[in-house]
Amino acid sequence: MIQTKGLSKRYGSLEALVDLNLEISRGEIFGFIGPNGAGKTTTMRILSTLLEPTKGQAFIDGLDVRKEGHKVRRTIGYMPDFMGVYDDLKVFEYLEFFAAAFGIESKKRKSIVEGVLELTDLQGKRAETVDSLSRGMQQRLGLARVLLHDPKVLILDEPASGLDPRARIEIRELLRELRRMGKTIMISSHILSELEEICDHVGIIENGRLIFSGSMEQIRIQLGLGNKVKVRVTGNQEMAIELLKGLSEIQEVKALDDHIAVTFYPDKPGDGIIARTLVNGGIDIISLEPVRVKLDEAFLHLTKGIVH
Amino acid sequence: MSWQTLYSACKRINPLWLTGPIFEKELVVSSRRRRNYVLRFAYVALLSFLVLMVWIPNISMSSSLAYQTARMSVAGLWIVTTICFYQFIMTQFTAVIMLSTAISDEIYHKTLGLLMTTPITSFQIVMGKLLSKLLQMLLLIGISFPLLVILRVFGGVPWSYILSSFCITITASLFAGALTLYFSIRGRYAYAVILKSIFTLAMLYLFIPMIMIFLMVLITQSTGPSSAMKLMYVISLFNPFFQMYGATVSLFMGRIFGTFGAALSPWTWHCLTLLGLTILLVARSVTIVRRVARSQAVGEFEIGSRRRIKKKKHEAVLKPEEGRYFSDSEIKPVKGSPIVWKELRVPFIRGGRRSSKIALGFSLAALFLCYLLNHITDALDSEATHFGYALVFVLLGLITNIVLSATTITGEKESGSWPILLTTPLDNWQIIIGKAIGVFRRCLPIWLFLAGHLILFTLVKYIHPIAIFQMVLVVAGSMFFLGCSGLYFSSLMKRTTSAVVANLGFVAFLWFVMPIFLSFMMQITRSTPEWMNAYLSANPAVQTGVVMIACSGSGNAGSSVLNLQYRWPLEGSENFIRATIIIFVVAVCYTVFGLLMLYRARVRLRRNIF
Asked: With 80 as the cut, is the pLDDT of residue B9 above it?
């Protein structure tokens, strides 16, 4: 649905984006992460037809963003990191204005605007002026705006910034709902734990270069991080550790406060082997809990240059 | 003990206590701003140009050496007065420009609230800003001071004139600066603060004295000259232009204009009065700055916005059980082009309908008063009167057009809504044309004043009806041209103030600086090429003058169209047909140039977005 080929952007001597190759499938939520100034916003602006790339190509739904900008704009809904508002418009007017700008017929506009207001829980604010809304409300309004023309692709630059915890959870649910509706969503955020929960794939960018793109499973493999399991046992913990250390599938066994942390070799999943070994060794198991690789952990590893 | 006490006493009486570290910070920052160097360069260049312009006609190079020597003292006198007047005007103008962002920048960057959390007082903030700019203005004055001293030594100009003009200039600049600083506390955009300050100064120094002079004429007719002299004294107490004029007239021909000089208040009293007014303005600014800073510190104040008050009003009409606001009826449905619709939602005057109504009421009352005074003094039958009115309306309309067109895109860039608009499927032409129509529609209220004046005095037979048609041509061409140039600069620049200044500068160069320069060239070369004539005739102010003088007055209004005589500045008279053709051709040229600029604006629309 979204594809970039050798996409580069240069501002004078600064290379903001270098040879970016990205592919996002239909109906996927793609998390785009990276430190400040890494090139996330530049990529999103190019995909939204706001910036011209210096080199390379970008396609959205098969449309070249450079040559078919007009058609691309009908396909996407772009929400910038800083949402500018019109001083003198009310919430309903603001949405109706953009509905008209997207060429929605005047007869349908009212019901569409009412629909997105309901979806984003802004009905109570419909007659308030846009600039009197709080930051969180403005973010919601921005999301309501991008949904007006029912775009296939949503490009959301830091949509959760400035939102309170409840609003973040609501936005997360809304994004899940949009995925169910078949929308492709590209989202950038600094709150990695949130992206982890909703994203199918992630892209990690640093210094304008894409240093990783794939699923969380692929991150684990690429980082050489095996599956981790938390094991709680009754009785002799040392004996349990000895038994586990003898297994060829296991890379590392560590005794922590109240549990044992077991790490498998990346290429050896070792399904059920821990339980079998411990039970056969006469050790009672309280719990076996798989531990997934955290996105922030992966982010720290990757952006420290471990992959390079 | 004694040394320590003395040291602490000295520390307390340190003049820097007045300003705190703000003064130093302002000086450091201003030394890094390129625009200050540009300003100084422009100041010196313009001063040199003016001195040259005064010098050459006074000392005719083709005449004998003896004649030239004899003319030296006269030339010296003219050059001194030119420099003094130049300083007088320019320092006030510079003060307005420099202080236009004095406080608003601090509020916009949210640093005012931070400053208030330090031991710096609001008095120090205001004084620091004001005095640091004053110092830079003194530097500008200092640039021309050596020339004045040389001329004083060789030219026979009394010290009293130089001293009085210097003091009048400084106090007038201080007052203009304090006024601008006061406006900058509540103004978000520098251009708006500049326009507001210039408008207020024009009201104080021009409009109010004009009304008072009319009254003076009436008083003189009824009670004799003594009451009029008292009125004149009062006006001159507040008006630095009167003081400068009085001092200059006295310098040239003191005895002849002795009566005028006697009617004025002494310049020392005038300076003290303006200083007093400046202190009052500073005191008021100090109070407001503190209030604004406190509001900002608790996140209540957004510059240029009165939403806090509005929000409270909204809350008052909220019916929680219904979960919605009563003001649904205020929601206006989008009709036609969304861009035009949105542009027309922006109020002409910030602050809502009430402010617009007050401004309209005030303008109409002022206009009515002027008409009444003109009627009493039998001036309504004069061509000059109608030329004056038409010129004021045309200038106001064009300035509004210049400002609104230049702010329409940059305003969105600054607020961050521009990228959002550009990701809609609206194409560049739709956006540009929508914006242009919006600008023209928003300027209409000003043009209605001109239309009202022309129609009213056509009906009472003081203006020939054909003037309406010709003025429509004059206004349409220049309005379209300026609207398009404003859109071009707005698409080119990122900051609203830069776009407004660029558009104003472009117009000033085209219609003010170039005509002066050409007149100067014509004086030197003693020839008037055809193209210079054509260029000067294309000036809307000149065209307004030609049309209004030809068509105004009961004599002209009652005569046949074919008998009307249009007098162009450098040519002879033209009849109605030729004059209309000239005006029409000029309007077409402006339209073509405007279309070119509109095209360039369209091309540049999606560049420089961020």
From this structure: no
Given an 8 Å threshold on Cβ–Cβ distance, is A73 in contact with B415?
Answer: no
Residues sharing a CB contact under 8 Å with residue A34, sequence separation 6 or more, in sequence order: A40, A188, A204, A205, A206, A303
Q: Tell me, what DSSP letter sits at residue A129?
A: B
d(CA B132, CA B375): 48
Report d(CA A94, CA A126) in Å as an integer: 9
Which member of A89, A99, A109 has the closest CB to residue B345? A89
Give me the interface pTM, i.e. the ipTM.
Answer: 0.79
Q: Which residue has the higher pLDDT, B231 or B399?
A: B399
Asked if residue A90 has pLDDT above 80, the reply is yes
Give the amino acid at B219: I
> Residue B254: how many CB atoms within 10 A of its CB?
11
Instruction: Note the pLDDT tens digit of each residue in B531-540.
Output: 788 888 889 9
The pLDDT value given to residue A131: 78
pLDDT of B280 higher than 90 = yes
Helix (H, G, I), strand (E, B) or coil at A62: coil
Cα–Cα distance, B565 to B385 (Å, whole number): 18
Tell how far CA B395 is from the center of its chain.
11
Determine the pLDDT at residue B315.
46
Name residue B31's amino acid.
Answer: S
Q: At residue B256, does pLDDT exceed 50?
A: no
- Show the 3-state SS of B121-157: CHHHHHHHHHHHHHHHHHHHHHHHHHHHHHHHHHHCC
- A66: which chain B residues are within 8 Å (Cβ-Cβ)? none
Measure in Å the smallest separation between the Cα of A226 and chain B Cα atoms. Answer: 43
Q: Looking at residues A107-113, what average pLDDT do you find?
A: 89
The answer to whether the Cβ–Cβ distance between A98 and B424 falls below 8 Å is yes
* CA–CA separation, B342 and B358 (whole Å): 24
pLDDT band at B319; cut points 50, 70, 90 = very low
Residue B181: closest CA among B140, B139, B135, B127? B127
Contact B341 A97 (CB under 8 A): yes
**For chain A, how many residues are written?**
308
Residue B69's contacts (CB-CB under 8 Å, 6 or more residues apart) are none
pLDDT digits (tens, 9 = 90+) for B383-423: 889 999 999 999 999 988 998 899 889 888 888 889 999 99
Of A84, A128, A132, the CB nearest to B417: A84
Q: CB–CB of B129/B26 below 8 Å?
A: yes
- Per-residue pLDDT of A181-196, as tens digits, reads 888 999 988 777 777 7
CB-closest option in B310, B331, B339 to A132: B310
Task: Inform me whether the C-beta atom of residue B352 falls under 8 Å from chain A C-beta atoms.
Answer: no
Which residues in chain A are contacts of B417 at CB distance < 8 A? 84-86
Contact A267, A224 (CB under 8 A): no
> Chain B: nearest CA to A3, how far in angstroms?
19
